[in-house]
Amino acid sequence: MKQDISKLLQKKRKNILEDWMNSQLADAGLREDLMSNDELREQSAELLDSLLKGITEKNLTDFNAEAFAPVYEILSGISISRARQGFSPRETGVFVFSLKDALLKTLVTELQNDQETLMQALVTINKLLDNLGIITFETFIKGREEVILRQTDEIAEISTPVIQVWDGILALPIIGTLDSARTQVVMENLLQHIVETGSTIAILDISGVPAVDSLVAQHIIKTVAATRLMGAECIISGIRPEIAQTVVHLGIDLSNIMTKATLANALKHAFSMLRLDVKRIQKEKEK
Q: What is the extent of the structural domain holding 150?
């Protein structure tokens, strides 16, 4: 090229930043509820300064150049942060591609009298910013996956509460489908509470489980077996008619497990196992 594009862009840093900010602030999808304009400007300036500092005439087409490492690091941090904050992929993409527009606008303005250099510069900057766009989406997806995994763990914890309903009696209502990972959480929570409370009876209520197949039944059997190894007896409640029919149809043997139709029936049976008698107190009639 006849002119050093890297030096040209560095010289026009202020104009590029202003054009970039104006483009972002004018976008209909601007999320001022997630990030203030001052924070957006600070973030944009940090990325632009790192990019302009790293590029040279020699490495403009070398995306693996060591000088770009700080740029990739900053961009990755921004993308993951935005994924955690709740930005959409489009909103995150606009952040990078509006920078491309600002850079290309500067090149067109400054090189309009040198068409050959302009064309080469446009192609080079396009490729460079497209590469930054790829990195943006890769790291954004990674950040979003981390959020989903964390939320899944939190939901699993919330949906498998262990409740001490009486001295020596625990109840664990299960809501949703049981899979291997969730069964592990159920067992760990239940066994931990058995140790902490010294309970001898655990009630697993599956009335919130939409369907029971052979895999779900195996998970339940494993949980019962683990409970027994801890010295506690397990009662399965919430056996609805359709679940009972499915279990029989699949030939699943639950004969060695105590089952009850409702949680109330299971609790009543647990009282009898502990030789407890719960009675209603009759109020004396007023004279």
A: 5-156
